[in-house]
Each structure stands twice: as C-alpha cells, then as structure tokens.
Amino acid sequence: MNITDLTVHELKEKLDKKEITITEITKAYVDRINEKEPEVKAFVTTLTDTAMEEAKKIEEKVNNGEIKTEFAGIPIGIKDNMCTKGVKTTCSSKMLENFVAPYDATVVEKLNAENMIDLGKLNMDEFAMGASTEYSAFKKTCNPWNLNKVPGGSSGGSAAAVAAGLVPWALGSDTGGSIRQPASFCGVVGLKPTYGLVSRFGLVAFASSLDQIGPITKDVKDSAMLLNLIAGHDEKDTTSINVEKKDYTKALKNDVKGLKIGIPKEYFGEGINSEVKKALETAIEEYKSMGAIVEECSVPIAEYALATYYIIACAEASSNLGRFDGIRYGYRTPNFENLKDIFVNSRTEGFGEEVKRRIILGTYVLSSGYYDAYYKKAQQVRTLVKKEFDKAFEKYDVLITPTSPTVAFDIGQRSNNPLEMYLADICTVSLNIAGLPGISIPCGVDSTGMPIGMQIIGKHFDEETILNAAYTYEQKIKFRDMYKPEFKNKWKTSSCVVELHRENPRCATSTPPVF
Questions:
Q1: Phi, psi at 397, each rounded to 5°
Q2: Cα-Cα end-to-end distance for the chain
Q3: What sign for the dihedral angle of Cα 130, 331, 101, 56?
Q4: Alpha carbon of 390 to those of 97, 300, 352: distances in Å?
Q5: Catalytic pick from 92, 136, 154, 404?
Q6: Is residue 155 reached through a cis peptide bond, with omega within 30 degrees of 0 on the bond before it?
Q7: Active site residue 289
Q8: Of the segments 196-205, 298-307, 490-499, which one has the largest average pLDDT value?
Q9: Which band of pLDDT confidence, cut at 50, 70 and 90, is reported for residue 303?
C-alpha cells in the first residue's frame, strides 16, 4: 500500500480501522516531499519538521481521547496567498518575500480547528496573476505528468502537489480559473465555490470581487469533504453570505437520471483543441448513457467575458496592490534619496513583470479619461453575463464546457506572450464574473498522455448538483484507475516517462454527440 496514492476519505477509513497511524501518514508525505519536491518545485515553504512534531502530538491526544475531530492528523497544503500565523506568506513575490503573517486566514483557522497538519505553503503565480505558475518570483513549478510542461496557474503549486502525491489535498484560490485550469492540466479535481460561500478573510487580495478560495483534491468526494470544512459565513468578511450549512457529501448520489445538461456552443468553437473537444464529446455521451438530458444551448455574451474579466481584474489589482509601496507594506528598496524614490524603486524592484503589466492596465482603465469607456462598460457587461447565465439556468441544471482550450503547454512557450497566456482562461473567467460555482474533473488524456479537464457549471449556491454530476461521471470512468503519472526511475527535468493504462474504452475519443 502506497499511502500517498490514497484519497483523504481512504486515509480516514484506514485511520478509523487503525490500519495506519497519523505519524505513518505524515511521514509518508514528508518522505515523498523530500524525494520529489526538488523535481516538481511545488512548495515555497515546506514545514516537514514541524509537521512530524505536530503528528506525534496529535496522535497522542487522539489516542488519549483529548481530540475527536473528524480530520485530526490529516495533512494539507495551502496556497501561499493565505495568511498562516508564524509562517511566511509571500504570494510568490519579492514584495512579500520575508512577510510572516501575524494571524491566520479564516480557512486556516477552520483547518486548525480540525487539528489538520500543514505540510507547507504552495507556489503560485505572483499575487495570483498568471495561468502557468511561471510568474513566481522564486521558482517555476513543473507538471508531474511531464516535467517540461506547466502545471497551470495561478494555483499551479497546489495542483502539482496533489497530482504528485506531495499532499493529499490542498487549498487554492480562483480569480479567473486559477483552481480549475491547473486542476485540468494536472489531472486532479478543482472546485471553485459560489462567490461568498467561503470566507476570503486572510486571503491576500488580487481582485476582490472575483477571488474565491476552494479545494484541489484527488477525487470529488474529497472536494465535498474539504468544502464542508471551509464553507460558511464569516463576520470578518463583508462579502461572506450567510446561507444554511450543508453536508456536501450527502449530495454524492451517483445518479444523474433526468439531469438537464446544457452544452453552450460558444465554448466549443474556434480555439478549442480538437482532442479536448473529442474528449468532452465522449464525456457528454457518457452522461446521455447514464440518463441525463443533454441539449446544445447558447450563452452569446460569453465571447465578451475574457475582455470584461481582464478590465475588472486589473482595475481591482491596481487598487489592491497600491498598499505595497515600501512604506506601509512590503519590500523597501535600499536605493533611495527621497520619498518618491522609495515608492518608485520599491515597486519597480518588488513586483514582477506580469504584476506591473496588470497594475499599469488597471490604472489606465480607472483613470478619469477612460473610466466610463472601459471600467464602467465592463461592469455593465458583467451584469449581462450574469443575466445570460441566469437565463440558461432557467432551463438547465448544469452547463458543461472544457476547462481549458488546450492541455498543459511547454514551460516557456507562452511566458513572453501575455495575450496568448490570457487566452488560457477563456473557458473559466465567466464564472468568476457571474459569481457561479464550477468544478473541473479529468475526462481523459490527449495523444501525448496529458490530462484533459471538463468543467461543470452550476447555479449560485448549488454546489450539490455539480458535485453529484462530477461524482457520477467519475465513478463511471474511474480516471484515477486508468491514468496516472508513473515515472520510471528518477524523474528528470529533461524528460519523463508516463505509464498510461487505457483498458477502459470510455476514455477513448468518439464521434461528436447528436443533440
């Protein structure tokens, strides 16, 4: 038995049966990190020593009956833009390279209340701005399926760590697809909850009206369990919504008979890779075979979503990052003669190129001469995007699209082409604009063996329906049993070998569905 291959619900079951111990689980992950982290580069800060100490303490208290929480002793990884008291929170930026948070984010408080074990802070694109985790100031994370490929972003460290077995599950944040797209690239499950369902208190803000924390896991049941832990109203977050507490695992019924699925044609047009499209068509046929009602539909405003997103996101980033000036927060330059030098040099030296690019764009669209033409217009289009989705959900229970137009691309392929990089988010940004929940699950691999992700979109606060739709499909095709990165000997940066198991014909490509 390889402990690091197990899902969290499998770990928990073995813990309950006393087949393994908390220290054995933690040591297995620590050993895995020590072995594979130099190749994957998923962490900014590892906490392996303190994790082993915590495991021993928690195990003793559990055995003595002092701790009875459900997930006591289960390890986790946390994206490095969520504050963790006494531990560096860098946002993968030189600007916050030495910042040690004086408090815990609300989601971290909830994990601590469960007596979970933090294995470390996970790498990301600087201030969550990027789609490949190449814009980190410290390292470029590699995709465990092929170390020459990006893991996606900005939560690339979280997705890569779960896929590589460095953590059993992780927290990420999603501003325009930053949970779902890396989950797609790394062959894992990524859930973006409805805006306001999970507290953002303690999350370093990128774009406040778009950011949302969510789980990245090995399977759908783990996503439901982690959402149970982190969801809920928080008085410290004014955007947090007070809704009824739910047990999302009860929604996993493994049945989609009668489920009405809409397939928005705008998400299957030009720019979508042919193999991605075929994998989605095969998945759609699976839903039809399981009794779901599938129809093609239209969300015509979707073509404007990407431009709308980048105007709003950059404007909010410009505002949020204004505090990092070398005086109030963040890195301070040693090269100054006056106050202006401190401001200019601190921001010039502390921020990376992508962050500067977005700050400049955001400042431009907020300026007095262009506010009405760009930012105000984008907010009006945002309302139209939400209305279009509301209209679609009058007829359908869920919508299905690709998560990304392509599979993971080569490291360095797009890092010098911002517009091409921005197009990686074309299938995901509309959900953040409308505040909708969405989940990405693997639905096959392409001819090179790289995972393909399917996105399931739901109504506001209807995570149960998308979780069940994802779970039912997952149980049918059993992706983790067929496809996994199995590297021969030691992983190498120059190349890697992936063993693919293709016994199940349901993951092969097929003819397009007939609506």
A1: -80, -40
A2: 44
A3: positive
A4: 42, 13, 38
A5: 154
A6: no
A7: no
A8: 196-205
A9: confident
C-alpha angle 86-198-191 in degrees, rounded to nearest 5:
105
Residue whose entry in the numeric block shows the structure tokens 């695992």: 249
* Catalytic residue of the set 136, 178, 404, 415: 178
Read off φ and ψ for residue 315, nearest 5 degrees: -60, -45
CA 194-197-199 angle, 5° bins: 125
Would the CA dihedral through 484, 490, 492, 495 be positive or negative? negative
**How big is the chain, counted in residues?**
515
Concerning whether 478 is annotated as a catalytic residue, the answer is no
Mean pLDDT along residues 228-242: 97
Instruction: Quote the CA–CA distance of 149 and 41 in Å, as a whole number.
Output: 13
At residue 192, φ and ψ (nearest 5 deg) are: -100, 110
Q: Phi and psi at residue 180, in whole multiples of 5°?
A: -70, -45
pLDDT, tens digit, 9 for 90 and up, residues 319-374: 999 999 999 999 999 999 999 999 999 999 999 999 999 999 999 999 998 999 99
**How many angstroms separate the CA atoms of 311 and 329, rounded?**
25
Helix, strand or coil, per DSSP, at residue 325: coil
Distance (Å) of CA 104 to CA 21, 82, 108, 232, 449:
27, 8, 6, 16, 39
- CA 354, distance to chain mean position in Å, is 19
- Tell the residue number behind the tokens 């208290």, with chain if given: 61
| Under 8 Å between Cβ of 479 and 187 | yes
Helix (H, G, I), strand (E, B) or coil at 118: strand
178 catalytic, yes or no? yes
Of 79, 121, 192, 484, the active-site residue reads 79
- Residues near 472 by beta carbon (within 8 Å), at least 6 away in sequence: 253, 254, 255, 256, 290
Residues with Cβ < 8 Å from 170, sequence gap 6 or more? Answer: 76, 77, 78, 79, 122, 155, 158, 159, 161, 162, 215, 216, 217
For residue 408, which of 418, 389, 421 has the smallest C-alpha distance? Answer: 421
> One-letter amino acid identity for 36?
K
In angstroms, the CA 414 to CA 422 distance is 9
**DSSP symbols for 438-493:** EEEEEEEE-TTS-EEEEEEE--TT-HHHHHHHHHHHHHHH-HHHHB-----SS--S
What b/e sequence results for 335-354 when a residue is b if at least 16 CB atoms lie within 10 Å of its CB, and e otherwise?
eeeeeeebeebbbeebbbeb
Rounded CA separation 155/91 (Å): 11
pTM: 0.93
Task: At 355, list the tokens.
Answer: 């962050």
Beta strand spans in 13-116 (E): 43-46, 75-79
